[in-house]
Design brief:
The chain has 3 helices and 7 strands, in the order αβββαββββα. By secondary structure, the protein is of the alpha+beta class.
C-alpha cells in the first residue's frame, strides 16, 4: 500500500513539474524578455561615429546585440550607414518616420548578416545609427520596437 501511495505521489509530482515547465516555455516564447549580458564602447566608420553596445540574451535563449553610434553631422551618419549596408543582402527597406509618423527622419533596413545565422536591423536617424543584431529576426524586431519606442 505504501509503495502504491508513493508511486501515485511521484506521478502527480512528475506531471505537475512537466506541466509547469511546458507552461513556462510557452509563456516566455510569447512574452519575450531580455537579460543584459554585457556592455562596451566602439567606433563605427573609422571612429567617426562613437557609441556603445549592449549584449542581451532572451528568456528563450536567443542572442541580441544593440549598437548605437552618434556622428558630428547627419550627413556623416548617412554616408556611414550607406557604406555599412551597401554590400549586405537587404531583405527589407523602408523610410524611418518620427514619433508622430509624419516626417521621414531616416531609413531602416533589415539585412542578412555576414555572420551565418544572424540578421541585423540598421537604421539611420539624423546623426545617429542604430543596429540590432540577433540570431532571430523575430527577436530583433521585438527588441527594436521596444528600444526605439516608435
Amino acid at each position: 500500500m505504501k509503495i502504491k501511495n508513493l508511486l501515485f505521489h511521484l506521478l502527480i509530482f512528475s506531471t505537475t513539474l512537466a506541466f509547469g515547465i511546458a507552461l513556462a516555455r510557452i509563456y516566455f516564447t510569447v512574452n519575450i524578455g531580455f537579460i543584459e549580458q554585457g556592455t562596451g564602447s566602439f567606433g563605427m566608420c573609422g571612429g567617426e561615429g562613437l557609441g556603445g553596445f549592449t549584449d542581451f540574451k532572451s528568456y528563450d535563449g536567443e542572442d541580441v546585440a544593440f549598437f548605437h553610434a552618434r556622428y558630428e553631422t547627419s550627413e556623416k551618419a548617412r554616408k556611414c550607414f550607406e557604406s555599412i549596408t551597401k554590400d549586405l543582402e537587404i531583405i527589407e527597406s523602408e523610410p524611418l518616420y518620427d514619433r508622430e509618423g509624419k516626417t521621414i527622419v531616416g531609413q531602416r533596413v533589415v539585412v542578412l548578416d555576414p555572420h551565418p545565422g544572424e540578421v541585423s536591423i540598421f537604421s539611420v536617424d539624423g546623426d545617429q545609427i542604430y543596429e540590432v543584431a540577433s540570431t532571430s529576426l523575430r527577436h530583433a524586431k521585438i527588441f527594436e520596437r521596444r528600444a526605439r519606442k516608435y
